[in-house]
Amino acid sequence: MPPIRTSKRPGDFVVVSRGIYRSVVMSCPDGCGDVLTINLDPRTDKAWRYYRKRNQLSLFPSVWRDTGCQSHFIVWHHTIIWCEDNYRNEDVVIDSELDMRQRILSTCTYEWQHFTQIAEAIDEVPWDVNRICHQLARSLKLLEDGGKKRLGFFRLSAARK
Ligand SMILES: [Zn+2]
Fold first, then answer.
1. Edge-to-edge strands, sheet with 113-114
2. Is residue 148 exposed (0-12), middle (13-18) or buried (19+ Cβ within 10 Å)?
3. What spacing in Å lies between the alpha carbon of 26 and ligand 1's midpoint?
4. Which of 51, 80, 86, 115 sits CB 3.0–4.6 Å from 6 for a disulfide?
5. What is the pLDDT, as a whole number, of residue 85?
6. ω into 61 cis (within 30 of 0)
7. 103-to-4, 99, 132 alpha-carbon distances in Å
8. How far apart are CA 102 and CA 107, in angstroms?
9. How far is ligand 1, taken at its centre, from the CA of residue 91, in Å?
Protein backbone atom coordinates (compact mmCIF):
# COMPACT_ATOMS: atom_id res chain seq x y z
CA MET A 1 0.00 0.00 0.00
CA PRO A 2 1.19 3.59 -0.58
CA PRO A 3 2.25 5.86 2.32
CA ILE A 4 -0.59 7.37 4.32
CA ARG A 5 -1.48 10.97 3.41
CA THR A 6 -0.80 13.49 6.13
CA SER A 7 -0.63 17.26 6.13
CA LYS A 8 2.92 17.06 7.48
CA ARG A 9 4.89 14.31 5.71
CA PRO A 10 4.17 10.91 4.19
CA GLY A 11 3.44 8.34 6.88
CA ASP A 12 5.37 5.23 5.97
CA PHE A 13 4.08 2.13 7.62
CA VAL A 14 4.10 -1.65 7.56
CA VAL A 15 1.49 -4.10 8.76
CA VAL A 16 2.99 -6.98 10.74
CA SER A 17 1.11 -10.26 10.55
CA ARG A 18 1.87 -13.75 11.76
CA GLY A 19 -1.29 -15.74 11.06
CA ILE A 20 -3.34 -12.78 12.25
CA TYR A 21 -2.65 -9.07 12.10
CA ARG A 22 -0.27 -8.26 14.95
CA SER A 23 0.57 -4.59 14.62
CA VAL A 24 1.00 -1.57 12.41
CA VAL A 25 4.47 -0.05 12.63
CA MET A 26 4.54 3.50 11.31
CA SER A 27 6.72 6.56 11.40
CA CYS A 28 4.88 9.11 13.51
CA PRO A 29 2.82 11.10 10.99
CA ASP A 30 3.75 14.46 12.48
CA GLY A 31 7.34 13.93 11.40
CA CYS A 32 8.87 13.88 14.89
CA GLY A 33 10.90 10.84 13.86
CA ASP A 34 9.48 8.40 16.41
CA VAL A 35 8.37 4.97 15.26
CA LEU A 36 4.95 3.92 16.57
CA THR A 37 3.86 0.35 17.07
CA ILE A 38 0.08 0.10 17.10
CA ASN A 39 -1.12 -3.20 18.51
CA LEU A 40 -3.82 -5.04 16.53
CA ASP A 41 -3.84 -8.28 18.51
CA PRO A 42 -6.72 -8.32 21.02
CA ARG A 43 -5.06 -11.15 22.96
CA THR A 44 -2.33 -8.78 24.12
CA ASP A 45 -3.05 -5.43 25.71
CA LYS A 46 -5.22 -2.67 24.25
CA ALA A 47 -5.85 -3.37 20.58
CA TRP A 48 -6.92 -1.27 17.62
CA ARG A 49 -9.20 -2.50 14.87
CA TYR A 50 -7.63 -2.64 11.45
CA TYR A 51 -9.61 -2.11 8.24
CA ARG A 52 -8.47 -2.36 4.70
CA LYS A 53 -10.97 -1.17 2.10
CA ARG A 54 -10.09 -0.23 -1.47
CA ASN A 55 -6.47 -0.90 -0.49
CA GLN A 56 -6.65 1.90 2.08
CA LEU A 57 -5.87 1.52 5.75
CA SER A 58 -8.11 2.67 8.60
CA LEU A 59 -7.61 2.16 12.32
CA PHE A 60 -10.13 2.45 15.14
CA PRO A 61 -10.14 4.12 17.63
CA SER A 62 -7.85 7.15 17.34
CA VAL A 63 -4.16 6.95 18.20
CA TRP A 64 -3.25 9.16 21.14
CA ARG A 65 0.38 9.14 22.19
CA ASP A 66 0.91 9.70 25.90
CA THR A 67 4.65 10.11 25.41
CA GLY A 68 6.93 12.06 23.05
CA CYS A 69 5.10 14.43 20.71
CA GLN A 70 1.65 13.59 22.26
CA SER A 71 0.13 13.39 18.77
CA HIS A 72 -3.54 12.50 18.58
CA PHE A 73 -4.79 11.38 15.21
CA ILE A 74 -7.17 9.17 13.29
CA VAL A 75 -6.14 6.93 10.41
CA TRP A 76 -9.11 6.94 8.06
CA HIS A 77 -8.97 5.60 4.51
CA HIS A 78 -5.25 6.25 4.29
CA THR A 79 -5.56 9.81 5.52
CA ILE A 80 -4.34 11.21 8.84
CA ILE A 81 -6.94 13.37 10.57
CA TRP A 82 -5.42 15.46 13.36
CA CYS A 83 -7.79 15.49 16.29
CA GLU A 84 -6.70 18.92 17.48
CA ASP A 85 -7.89 20.23 14.08
CA ASN A 86 -11.44 19.77 15.30
CA TYR A 87 -11.82 16.70 13.09
CA ARG A 88 -11.55 18.44 9.72
CA ASN A 89 -12.26 15.45 7.55
CA GLU A 90 -13.92 16.71 4.35
CA ASP A 91 -11.01 15.22 2.40
CA VAL A 92 -11.95 11.69 3.31
CA VAL A 93 -14.22 10.20 0.66
CA ILE A 94 -16.54 7.35 1.58
CA ASP A 95 -17.14 4.81 -1.16
CA SER A 96 -20.77 3.97 -2.04
CA GLU A 97 -22.19 6.30 0.57
CA LEU A 98 -25.82 5.90 -0.50
CA ASP A 99 -25.60 2.16 -0.22
CA MET A 100 -24.09 2.47 3.25
CA ARG A 101 -26.89 4.84 4.28
CA GLN A 102 -29.44 2.19 3.36
CA ARG A 103 -27.58 -0.51 5.25
CA ILE A 104 -27.25 1.71 8.34
CA LEU A 105 -30.95 2.54 8.28
CA SER A 106 -31.90 -1.11 8.02
CA THR A 107 -29.61 -1.95 10.96
CA CYS A 108 -30.83 0.83 13.23
CA THR A 109 -33.85 0.26 15.45
CA TYR A 110 -35.76 2.40 17.95
CA GLU A 111 -33.26 1.27 20.60
CA TRP A 112 -30.05 3.23 21.07
CA GLN A 113 -27.02 1.66 19.39
CA HIS A 114 -23.47 2.92 19.41
CA PHE A 115 -22.00 3.61 15.97
CA THR A 116 -19.32 0.99 16.63
CA GLN A 117 -22.05 -1.67 17.05
CA ILE A 118 -23.67 -0.55 13.79
CA ALA A 119 -20.28 -0.65 12.05
CA GLU A 120 -19.68 -4.15 13.36
CA ALA A 121 -23.08 -5.33 12.12
CA ILE A 122 -22.52 -4.09 8.57
CA ASP A 123 -18.75 -4.69 8.51
CA GLU A 124 -17.75 -1.13 7.74
CA VAL A 125 -15.17 1.31 9.10
CA PRO A 126 -16.56 2.96 12.28
CA TRP A 127 -15.41 6.42 11.14
CA ASP A 128 -17.54 6.06 7.98
CA VAL A 129 -20.54 4.90 9.96
CA ASN A 130 -20.16 7.71 12.50
CA ARG A 131 -20.08 10.35 9.75
CA ILE A 132 -23.07 8.91 7.91
CA CYS A 133 -25.08 8.49 11.13
CA HIS A 134 -24.50 12.17 11.86
CA GLN A 135 -25.67 13.11 8.36
CA LEU A 136 -28.74 10.93 8.73
CA ALA A 137 -29.49 12.63 12.04
CA ARG A 138 -28.61 16.22 11.27
CA SER A 139 -29.66 16.84 7.68
CA LEU A 140 -32.08 14.07 6.92
CA LYS A 141 -33.63 13.63 10.40
CA LEU A 142 -33.97 9.91 9.77
CA LEU A 143 -31.94 9.07 12.87
CA GLU A 144 -31.92 10.56 16.33
CA ASP A 145 -28.54 11.50 17.79
CA GLY A 146 -27.91 10.59 21.45
CA GLY A 147 -26.30 13.98 21.98
CA LYS A 148 -23.98 14.68 24.91
CA LYS A 149 -25.82 12.29 27.22
CA ARG A 150 -25.41 9.31 24.89
CA LEU A 151 -22.38 10.27 22.88
CA GLY A 152 -22.03 8.23 19.69
CA PHE A 153 -25.42 6.55 20.04
CA PHE A 154 -28.11 6.62 17.37
CA ARG A 155 -31.61 5.24 16.85
CA LEU A 156 -34.34 5.59 14.28
CA SER A 157 -36.07 8.90 14.55
CA ALA A 158 -39.37 8.69 16.40
CA ALA A 159 -40.95 10.72 13.60
CA ARG A 160 -40.57 7.69 11.33
CA LYS A 161 -42.78 5.51 13.52
ZN1 LIG B 1 5.27 12.46 16.53
1. 113-114, 153-156, 143-145
2. exposed
3. 10
4. 80
5. 60
6. yes
7. 28, 6, 11
8. 9
9. 22
pLDDT in tens, 45-61: 899 999 999 889 999 99
127 touches 58 (CB < 8 A)? yes
Query: Is residue 71 helix, strand or coil?
Result: coil
Instruction: Please report, for the chain, the start and end positions of each structural domain, with discontinuous segments joined by +.
Output: 13-85, 97-160
| Contact assessment for residue 153 and residue 146, using Cβ atoms and an 8 Å cutoff | yes
Neighbours of ion ligand 1 (CB under 5 A): 28, 30, 32, 69, 71
Predicted TM-score (pTM) of this structure: 0.89
Q: Which CATH architecture has domain 97-160?
A: Orthogonal Bundle (1.10)
CA 24 to ligand 1 centroid distance, Å: 15
* Cα distance between the two ends of the chain: 45
Mean pLDDT of 125-129: 96
Mean pLDDT of 116-125: 97
